[in-house]
Amino acid sequence: MAPKPVDYSLYLVTDSTPPILGDKDLVAVVKAAVEGGATIVQYRDKTSDTAELVQIARELHKVTKAAGVPLLINDRVDVALAAGVEGVHVGQDDMDLKTAREILGPDAIIGVTTNSLEEALEAASDGADYLGLGTVYATPTKENTKSIIGTAGVQHILAELHKAGHDVKTVCIGGINASNTQRVLYQCAAPQKQLDGVAVVSAIMASSEPKQAATHLRKLVSQPPPFASTAAKPQLSRAEIITKAPSIIKRMAEKKPLCHNMTNLVVQNFAANVALAIGSSPIMSTDGMEADDLAALGGSLVINMGSTTPEMRSNHLKALAAYNAIGGPIVFDPVGAGATTQRKAGVKALMAGGYFDLIKGNEGEIRTVAGAQGVRQHGVDSGASQLSMEDKIKLVKGTAARERNIILMTGSTDVISDGERTFTVANGHELLGEITGSGCTLGTTIASVMASEREDKLLAALVGVLAYEIAAERAAARTDVKGPGTFVPAFIDELYQIRQESVSGDGSWAQAAK
Ligand code: 3NM
Ligand code: MG
């Protein structure tokens, strides 16, 4: 069956209950929404009697027909027939798709709620016009949803639908609103199959200005998020990276971009000195209330999950939103991610709350980020490696492809990937493991370079890693360095040297790249 020419991009599901609709009039809200830009409407009403359902459906149909927008009825094939609307939406516990199709015929639009890959494949095979995929995020609108699958779950289903050759249309549902619509569409997309739209309830139905809410959402679904990489990713050879690295440090040092660090007390001073040495302008602020103003200054942000208090999480989420809104690069350092339940929850909440351009961590942290179960860490140090290099590369590349960002796994050999291009870096020195904050300040260095090098974020990050780890090697090699205590000032001096050499056109430091 060829797909019907239906625009699913902004799919409104109604709700007539007081917590969402308030004292507004349902038909008036739907009228405002379709005028604002909702492209399809599902009348979902779990409480009204049949006669009332039919009557409201007829009223809604007048409004949607005038706007040239299809109207579907949730669950009730009889009501859809009685009101003569364009189709139905059925859940897993409703009338089965094949029977609904027999009753309504081939021209009716029939969609199915699917919360798992099995359900999605079955509904697609049975001839659904579209699938509602979810639940993306937990939502007070529908508390008895079967499973929260996040953007990664939606992406997996899309990839498998494509593999199975289904061209069924798809929308996602659950917790979608103006703050996350663009990111969700971006992060759900599989390489060969993207969502056709987002389905929302409260983002429009609960709004006091449903027309404006719909207009805004429609605009958001029509354009990529500000942080999306639009340029094609050029292949990079190691030789090219080594040649380009000094000029990238030079450009950053000349721009002196703001590098905003939300980090723990232990590292604040060290991170500020590292930023100054490499050539960015540090600000150490954990106050989410000033993140909008700081983001507007055009720099980058490091979120270091050194603290997981609710207050700190709320600050982090505010800052994430501020930088995401204008595409300012964000580096996430999920410190001790697998160590405690609280930290695992912190990683989940932050990753569901915004987009990180780069996530850096040791093996345990990245495994937690990837969603590996049963990752246990002792304290927040890096611990012993459990994965082979081959497995590390697979994990880093796969996670980056899934999140559509950059993942950096640090270790004696670092692995970095944007899902397409993967590199290893074997520079650095064991003294970095003997001082506090070496992981955090690597994040600061990377974010500094990413602030000025926006075209190719992977290249920027790699250059940050190289400068940082080559500086550590140079510091450790100095005869005046006897251990961790003398290493720290020497390391800051060497970062500063690398910046000075780069600015003066001497790029030989990068030749030490391994
Ligand atoms: N179906 P809101 S979640 C109607 O997961 C519905 O199948 C869901 O509401 C599913 O946009 C949901 O307010 C409610 O989060 C979505
Ligand atoms: Mg249902």
Beta-strand proportion? 5-15%
Question: In angstroms, what separates the terminal alpha carbons?
Answer: 55 Å
Average of pLDDT: 95
List the domain count as a whole number: 2
Number of strands: 16
Order of strands across the main sheet: 1-2-3-4-5-6-7-8
What name does the CATH topology of the largest domain carry?
Answer: UDP-N-acetylmuramoyl-L-alanine:D-glutamate ligase
CATH superfamily of the largest domain: Ribokinase
Which architecture name of the largest domain does CATH use? 3-Layer(aba) Sandwich
Bound ligands, each once = ligand 3NM, magnesium ion
Poorly predicted regions are: none
Question: Which structural category do the helix and sheet elements fall into?
Answer: alpha/beta
Task: Indicate the radius of gyration in whole angstroms.
Answer: 26 Å
- Helicity, as a percent range: 40-55%
Q: How many helical elements? A: 20
In this structure, how is the largest beta sheet organized?
8 strands, parallel, barrel
- Shape type: elongated
The level-1 CATH class of the largest domain: Alpha Beta
Write the layout of secondary structure elements.
Blueprint: E1 10-13, H1 18-21, H2 26-36, E2 40-43, H3 50-67, E3 71-74, H4 77-83, E4 87-90, H5 97-104, E5 109-114, H6 117-125, E6 130-133, H7 150-163, E7 169-173, H8 181-188, E8 197-200, H9 202-205, H10 210-221, H11 238-255, E9 258-262, H12 265-278, E10 281-284, H13 291-295, E11 300-304, H14 310-326, E12 330-333, H15 341-353, E13 358-361, H16 363-369, H17 389-403, E14 406-409, E15 414-417, E16 422-425, H18 438-452, H19 457-476, H20 484-503
Parallel strand pairs: 1-2, 1-8, 2-3, 3-4, 4-5, 5-6, 6-7, 7-8, 9-10, 9-11, 11-12, 12-13, 13-14
Antiparallel strand pairs: 14-15, 15-16
Bound molecules: ligand 3NM and magnesium ion (MG).
